[in-house]
Every structure is written in C-alpha cells, then in structure tokens.
Amino acid sequence: MVCGVTDEQRVEACLRRWQLRRDGPPRGGVMATVYPVRRVDGIPAALKVQQVDEETAGEPAALRVWDGHGAVRLLEHDPDDGAMVLERLDAERTLAGVPDVHRALAVLSQLLARLTSVAAPPDLRRLHDVAERMLAQMPGSLPRLADRDDQRLVRTCAAAVSDLLPVREDRLLHWDLHYHNVLAGEREPWLAIDPKPLAGEPGFELFPALRNRWGEAVATGDVHAAVRRRFDLMTEVLGLDRQRAAAWTMGRVLQDVLWEVERGARVVGPVHRAIAHALST
C-alpha cells in the first residue's frame, strides 16, 4: 500500500483511473483483494490490488509474456502501486472442484507445459539465487529440528539442490500453480492465475500440485504410490528429466521446511516428509 493511502482510497483511485465500476463483492486473500468490475464498455473484468514484494513484483511482466495463453490476461497495470485490471474468470469454478484429481492434474500439467515453454523476461528473480539462499540458510536452521531423522531429510534435500547448480534458468515459471490457482474461463476452459514468477527450470514447478488435495492421496492407502503417480503424470506431460525434477521437488520441500523453521517449527511436517521419501526411494 502506498504510504498514507488506505486500501479503499487506493481502490477508488483505480476505479477512476481506468473508468471502472464495481460489479459485486470483493474476494480477499492473504496478499491480494480482487474486485469484480465492469469497464466503460460494459465488459466484465477484475481489479486486483495487492502488496508488492519479491514474489509478486514480477506478476505483470509474466502475464504480459504469456499474453493470455494459458493464463489470465492482463488488461491494465499501474507500475507505481502494482494494481492490475485482469480479464474476469469464474472464481467459483477451480480445478479443486473437479472430482477426479488425476483429470484435474492432467489439466494443470498441460497448463504448466505451456507456461514454462516460453523464455523468462529480464529482471525477474532467479532460481539460482533462490537455491543459493536456501543452501546458505540450511546450516543455521538444522539444529532447530529436534529429530535426527528430520535433520537427515533436510540434509538430503540440500544435497539434491546442491547437485543441480548451476541452474538452467531461462524458462518462465509460475511457482505456485495448484488447483485453486486455475479458474474456469470463456476464452479457454481453464486459465492460471496468481503467478509468483521467477526464471528457472520447470522441474521446480511440480511441488504445489503434489502436496495439494492431499486427503485424496491419503485416501488411496498408499501415499508414496499416490505421490509417485502424480509425479509421473506431471513429468510425462511436461517432458521433464525425472531425476532433475525429483531433485527440484526436494528443493521445494527444503524451501518450505526452512520457512516453517523460521516460524518456530521443530519438526518436518508429514506431507513434506512423505513427498521427500516418495521421490528419494
């Protein structure tokens, strides 16, 4: 938020700037609020007002590169405060609502294949920097884990990431494509929203879809087999090197565990442990 300006003042300024009118109640998230609006020509759109940080700063650049191909289309952007006008999608229909998780995962994987097929624009955060930051943070976080098996798992994840350096970082990554971040559209049946983009390797993209809809993995009675089935589907659709994709997924486990340790966690959570074990055995 601009210093001294309330959220409501910011929204009103956007409505005036782009000649928009409200068209329903807003939907709020952790980082952003989305307001249904109509443009001056009556076409429905969505005004997204969010905090701009390291993760969200590259969203407009990524959406411009994708230009609506597999992702929501960017219509307007204010570079000063990060507000955007986007095409309107159906916020009530997400891939999380598709009953068959593997059908939903196939759709998500096909979107990822399209999104990561394009070159990253300049000045995005880079996966190499993210990886080096994790490796530098790991030794100080390790003693905070109470269980030696958890410490061993973190070391295994860190070793997997270290073996991947230097990073091939020319592809545009979404970073957070899970089932709730794919909405139904009119131009295409499904479109991705809310990228936290960076330049890197597509193997770094698999983790959110592996860990989401976790209850359905548990319900199979064999969590490790369920994780591997999801992993196999995604790597096949994206045409990825399985070994590198598994190592990058271990890196995503490491990233999450380090965040949780910073927030006071003393153990590795069961989901992270299960995914790491499934892909390292």
Residue share in β-strands: 15-25%
Give the CATH level 1 class of the largest domain.
Alpha Beta
Q: How far from one another are the termini? A: 46 Å
Q: How confident is the prediction overall: mean pLDDT?
A: 95
CATH architecture identity of the largest domain: Alpha-Beta Complex
What's the helix-strand series? Answer: HEEEEHEEEHHHEEEEHHHHH
Q: Label the overall shape.
A: globular
CATH homologous superfamily title of the largest domain: Aminoglycoside phosphotransferase (APH), C-terminal lobe
Describe this protein's structure.
- Helices cover 44% and strands 15% of the residues.
- By secondary structure, the chain is an alpha+beta fold.
- It starts with 6 loop residues before the first helix and ends with a helix.
- The model has no long low-confidence stretch (mean pLDDT 95).
Question: Which terms summarize this structure?
Answer:
single chain; 281 residues; alpha+beta; Phosphorylase Kinase, domain 1; Aminoglycoside 3'-phosphotransferase, Chain: A, domain 2; 2 domains; 3-stranded antiparallel sheet; 44% helix
